Amino acid sequence: MTLTLEVKKPRISKKLRQAIEIRVRKGATILAACEEAGLSPAGWYKAMQRPAVVDLLQEVQNRFVSEVSAGSAHRKARALKVAEDLMHNARSENVRARMAEFLAGDGKSPQVAVHVDARSTSRGYEMVRPGQRVVEMRDSSGNSVSEIVDQQTEDLNR
Questions:
Q1: Which of 6, 118, 143, 144 would you label with 135, given CA atoms 20 to 30 Å apart?
Q2: Residue 83 and residue 106: Cα distance in Å, rounded?
Q3: CB half-sphere exposure, 56, CA atoms < 13 A
Q4: 71 with 132, same domain?
Q5: Residue 108, φ and ψ in degrees, nearest 5
Q6: Cβ atoms of residues 43 and 6 within 8 Å
Q7: pTM of full prediction above 0.85
């Protein structure tokens, strides 16, 4: 005698399924996904305590990642084809050279060197924090000099 047990598939509401899809596919917050699906946030949190619902969320996330990855491979292949076409047919020698460099790097863009001169005499941008104010002063030749002064320091000097 063989005994077979029938396992019931857990019931997950249509609204909860829709909220999970919105959360994963649109990257919406839990509150926004629940609002759009017509589900209360309390219902979401209560449902997430059930293993079957957590499994469904994981399944939807895995399916979404695999779909995006498949599309990414297609876009990369297309970009390589366009780069090859530019390397052979572009009018600009510079573009042809860059595409050859791009394709030689297996589709990775060339490294960019950025030079930063730390010897600069200008102070650049300064942030005025709460409790501070900008004071405009002029030297003897009439040149403008700005300075940030703490409100507390100024009060002590009075």
A1: 118
A2: 11
A3: 21
A4: no
A5: -95, 140
A6: no
A7: no
